[in-house]
């Protein structure tokens, strides 16, 4: 029992290390003492009571951490002192200014620098900064991006009408197993998005058509080879796997269109971030569309008017078809490469902040989950649904780590960079443990039964994601802390190749091998 409580205390002590130095110096010892007293008040080992104590302590942690670091940052931003210390160091002064801009304190920096310049007018560096700020050069904003709605809206309408034409899911089915719409929606949407990108950029229309045609060919291939599986359940399984992975091929086609056949790690990572933004914007459009459709149907129902099925399908499938191109047009600027996209304003900044705030919550959930696993160890070995949860969790964690990774080194202060790096390493390490446990369960079920396409798919994706996380850990531990962002972006950029290769394999190989 004592060893278990010592482990909990050590974990709580590590959590306290996430707080700023001044906060730890003032409160950490007292907080640790109170926590240990709560554990000592239990005469016998009580796992449930221990978890309740941990939850009570950890639940307000994200808010407390954010507030503590914000207070620390404001204390740190005594600009007159900082400027005085950096008045002969151009690089340090630039870093202080960039940090002030990210903290929305550029005005405070400007006032402090002008005051310091007036006190030391002979300082050449301060004079240069004085005229730089006085002339308002730093207040200039990037020109607003002109979204090509004249192309986006018609393409969205055409896509919606095609979705509507395929939405008779009872009659339009592949081998009487799954609806055609389930397989064709992503190639159709991708073709529209590719045309939008090509027309807006004014180049590479031939490449867009070729990429769109390639995903159409991949979809047609999956339909043509599906009868090679003898049993109906096997054909259905393959078609469902194809329906899941064809969107990944479409996403890859959009990526090739965005950065060309030869791409840098920076471009691929920037495209990953923009992909997350497009997905979130599409989700927001979908929620708005569902609300509009529900209100429309409800208004007619209130008048005892039942809308015909064709019109209901137009609202549902046609409305869904409007979303893909609109989401791309809202977020992505096809006239510039991915690495030159705007990541500093609006939704981009919100998503990055949201992902980083979710990082400590994910860490807490993983720690609690690892503590609970021994008490229900055989669940994934016996329950397929539990395995599905594990796999979804693994993809979610990889996506979270991608979204939390800074685009540029000056997006965060050095202190927050250290905290973020340690948090990413911790989450990746714990996710590897849970994922290996889940992979062992899948392999066990396969050895007891047989290798089905579903199990092959899960084993492959688990292995790839575990490989990504382990590579992340190894590179971060070997890389200079000053270069951790570039190393992390490189890992995720290379992971896109593995994702694409496995998706192609699952479409091409199963009809031959299974």
Account of the 3D structure:
There is one protein chain. The protein has 514 residues and is mainly alpha-helical. It has 4 domains: 73 residues; 56 residues, no CATH class; 196 residues, no CATH class; 170 residues, no CATH class. It is built from 21 helices and 2 strands. Strand 1 and strand 2 form a beta hairpin. It starts with a helix and ends with a helix. About 1% of the residues have low confidence.
Short recap of the structure:
The protein is 78% helix and 1% strand. It has 514 residues and is mainly alpha-helical. The radius of gyration is 27 Å and the shape is globular.
Search tags:
two-stranded antiparallel ribbon; mainly alpha; 514 residues; 78% helix
Helix content: over 70%
What gross morphology would you assign? globular
Q: What is the count of DSSP helices, taking H or I runs of 4+ residues?
A: 21
Oligomer: single chain
Let me know the number of strands.
Answer: 2
Task: Give helix and strand order, one letter per element, not per position.
Answer: HHHHHHHHHEEHHHHHHHHHHHH
Distance between the termini: 51 Å
Domains, number: 4
Q: Strand content of the residues, in percent? A: under 5%
In the predicted model, the low-confidence regions spanning at least 5 consecutive residues are 72-77
Characterize the largest beta sheet: strand count, sense, and whether it forms a barrel. Answer: 2 strands, antiparallel
Secondary-structure-based class equals mainly alpha
- Rg is 27 Å
User: Averaging pLDDT over every residue, what do you get?
Assistant: 84
Spatially, the strands of the biggest sheet line up as 1-2
